[in-house]
Amino acid sequence: MFRFIYSIVWQIIEVSLPFAGLFNKKIRTGNTGRKSSISSLNKWRNSIPIDAEVIWFHCASLGEFEQGRPVMEALKKRYANSVVALTFFSPSGYEVRKNYSGADWIGYLPLDTYFNARKFVKILNPSQAFFVKYEFWMNYFLQLKKNKAELFCISVILRDDQRFFKWHGFVWKSTLKAVTHFFVQNESTLQLLKKITFNNVTLSGDTRFDRVMEIANSPKELAWISSFKQNNFLIVLGSSYTEEESLIAMLLSRVNDLNICVVPHEIHATRIQESLTRFEKFGAVLLSSFQPEKNTEARVLIVDSIGMLSSIYAEADAVVLGGGFGKGLHNSLEIAVYGIPMAFGPNYKKFQEAVDLVKIRCAFPIETLENLSSFVEHCRHENTIPNIGKKYVEEHAGATSFILKGIEKYSA
Fold first, then answer.
1. Is 352 within 8 Å of 346 (Cβ atoms)?
2. Does 141 share its domain with 266?
């Protein structure tokens, strides 16, 4: 009965979304992608051998993709004759990674109605499916179980206030029972699942540690950033929003010997223009038009392209990370792996790695201009942070190999 009601709700949402898309570009983009997803999948599936072994990875967005990527690439290498299908729920994941070479087919996940799930899984016919972090879709999970596919949930992190652990959590139990094995990030998630009688759980850690170490070992060379930095102290605003940028603009009015590299979370025209206007009086220039010999007085460089952020971090003296004034802090591990000190807004406590980095004084929560000023002064005089941050990442790496070993017993 609950599954029926759940499916009806998703069908209503599916009918309503085109109207919502009239007022929201992101929703509109997702709707367009989802409309063609099943037909695109069907065309691809017909182009490969009918008995080809398909491995399916699903990620909500870009952050979850980075968590699933190390496992995906390791499996692709291990099972050279298999093919990999990759789905995203959010346009912010799909649009950035739609040309990712590590997957053989990439598309949007259709909404979790009974009919969508049945059709999608039937066409795809995966032997293994991997859902990353906190993607739990009732109809897809139950359909995978019906098709006898192995379903692994990796880099899982749960909290006791989530629906599975409330008084009505029993209605979700059938969904979780479809999971072959849970590979979880922390001890509290392991205990929560055991509390509701799930023992097919392994504490493996977070695969992002492996991914950021891999990136740090082969950063892109960015000649332009040293030309911009010159001899000044360089602060990078990573995946920034209005709140972080406003604080930095106030700091620049106080301090003269700072250079700022701004990498907005979104780079559409309106957002880039907003950043340009905010930093106009400090000689802001876009990376796309930056000329080192002409823009020697520029104190702010705004990056209006994607795919460089982790390599930009490598050149920073300090980082102010976006998302901490909103609902979702961005990836602090990409900064910690270089041993670079960082600051972020106060809403970070749902992110275990951010809590850990604050505890070891590699990261510093800020709310005011005074907090930010103190952070910058601290960075200029503290020399132990590089060892602390890098060591933390190294100590927590290894989740990918742990997961691969755990999967082996099901594939034997």
1. no
2. no
Beta strands in 241-337 (DSSP E): 258-264, 285-286, 300-302, 318-321
Which residues are CB-neighbours of 15 under 8 A, at least 6 positions away? none
The tokens for 300 are 């702010």
Full domain range(s) for residue 83: 2-205
Which of helix, strand or coil describes residue 286? strand
Element at 264 (helix H, strand E): strand 258-264
C-alpha to C-alpha distances, 19 to 25, 143, 312, nearest whole angstrom: 11, 29, 39
In 3D, which of 306, 301, 311, 264 has the Cα closest to residue 279?
301
Report the C-alpha gap between 248 and 246 in whole angstroms. Answer: 5
Cβ atoms 132, 63 nearer than 8 A? no
Same-domain status, 251 and 184? no
Please give the tally of structural domains in the chain: 2
Structure tokens at 393: 């990442």
Asked whether residue 240 falls in the same domain as residue 370, the answer is: yes
402 domain residue, yes or no: no
Burial of 359 (0-12, 13-18, 19+ CB in 10 A): exposed
Confidence bin at 381 (pLDDT 50/70/90): confident
**Per-residue confidence band for 274, with pLDDT thresholds at 50, 70 and 90:** very high
342/161 Cα distance (integer angstroms):
29
Whether 189 has a pLDDT exceeding 70, the answer reads: yes
Q: How many CB atoms lie within 10 A of CB 156?
A: 24
> CATH code at 57?
3.40.50.11720
Position 383: which residue type?
Answer: N
- Indicate if the pLDDT at residue 412 is higher than 60: no
Residue 146 within a domain: yes
Residue 328 belongs to domain with CATH number: 3.40.50.2000
Looking at the structure, tell me whether residues 336 and 387 fall in a common domain. yes
Using alpha carbons, select from 406, 386, 396 the residue that is nearest to residue 352.
Answer: 396
The reply to whether 91 and 235 lie within a common domain is no
